[in-house]
Amino acid sequence: MADSAAATMGHSATGGHGPTDGTKRDFLGLVAGAGGAVLVGALAWPFIDSLNPSKDVLALSSTEVDLTPIAEGSAITVMWRGKPTFVRHRTAKEIAEAKAVKPSELIDPSAPATDAERTKAGHEKWLVVIGICTHLGCIPLGNKPTDQRGEYGGWFCPCHGSQYDTSGRVRHGPAPANLALPPYAFETDTKIKIG
What is the pTM of this model? Predict the structure, then answer.
């Protein structure tokens, strides 16, 4: 009878704390586990953060270009991620010629192949391409007014004779693909951010 009275009062015959003992232990275990997880996270964070790219590397991942000094019909070369990138201010004639070409006429008809896919809507006069020939990685000519631009008015690679049109699409020669398009966006009508 003494044992049943002790159990009713919340104590066992051996002096323990009975049914409430498990829930206190569970709670203390959760608190200790959560505290340990926070401590491990606090200790690991500096190491994890050190794996992120440094600020100078992040700065190279994007390039801003002021478009105002680029005269119509001319182009400039800027560096983006160590690659020459061509920014061309196309004339109305160059745009019309580029739009008239059907993808089926191209060496590389895969998308983006149409002029509309290779430019930004509302900013068709601007073309931005990575200036590396897709044959052997040479840098095509065509940005300077005195440069040879080939039969299609875009760029000409003197190494093996590949020619690109005013939309950066390969039209002649051994190059198998169109000039690549970098990711870019217009920040204003006169400024783009590449990358």
Answer: 0.69
